[in-house]
């Protein structure tokens, strides 16, 4: 993906995560417009951080058109409680204190269950709405798995899953459960894929 794709990527993620239980729990107060503004800010800041830190942004294209993406962050950069102060500041300004703390807590909870610090986290995975239910989700997950297999210093990838359909999608691609995980009011599982060179 290129810098020009980031704006479209942010729009895809916003639509995909608008009704996500974690983001609703973390960002919503009682004002829908405020929630949507916070969600846009949180996604934009996280995407920019991933881009600037040269983390994996995997795009799925139909010709020139970006129709889906997956974003992986590795522990080569500080995560959770160790997040950079400028990330915290921008997230605070855009999403607010409670929301920033919830995002940090989510990462910290995931990191605690990962086998070691050579593992990545699948932060986002999304398709544009009219491209869903065509098997493209499988192509995106396979692209993530293939990327992981090619990284000599990434032993695997974890992803927090709270939907049964998402659980089925990832387990079909050799993700296994590392255990139950509650983040805020949301219960789910941490799934993990072991890179081929470490399997």
UniProtKB/TrEMBL annotation:
Gene3D superfamilies: 3.40.630.30. InterPro entries: Acyl_CoA_acyltransferase, GNAT_dom. It comes from the Bacteria. It comes from Shewanella glacialipiscicola. This is N-acetyltransferase GCN5. Residues 112-157 form the N-acetyltransferase domain. SUPFAM superfamilies: Acyl-CoA N-acyltransferases (Nat). It holds the Pfam family Acetyltransf_1.
């Amino acid at each position: 993906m290129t810098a020009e794709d980031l704006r479209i990527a942010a729009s895809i993620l916003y639509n995909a995560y608008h009704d996500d239980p974690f983001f609703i729990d973390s960002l919503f107060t009682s004002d829908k417009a405020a929630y949507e503004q916070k969600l846009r800010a949180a996604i934009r800041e996280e995407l920019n951080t991933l881009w600037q830190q040269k983390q994996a942004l995997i795009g799925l294209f139909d010709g020139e058109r970006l129709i889906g993406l997956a974003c992986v962050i590795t522990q080569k950069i500080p995560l959770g409680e160790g997040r950079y102060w400028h990330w915290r500041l921008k997230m605070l300004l855009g999403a607010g204190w409670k929301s920033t703390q919830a995002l940090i807590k989510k990462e910290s909870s995931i990191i605690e269950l990962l086998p070691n610090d050579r593992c990545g986290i699948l932060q986002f995975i999304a398709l544009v709405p009219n491209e869903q239910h065509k098997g493209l989700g499988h192509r995106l997950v396979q692209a993530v798995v293939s990327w992981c297999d090619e990284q000599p210093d990434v032993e695997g990838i974890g992803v927090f899953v709270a939907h049964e359909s998402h659980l089925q999608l990832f387990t079909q691609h050799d993700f296994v459960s590392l255990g139950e995980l509650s983040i805020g009011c949301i219960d789910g599982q941490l799934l993990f894929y072991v890179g081929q060179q470490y399997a």
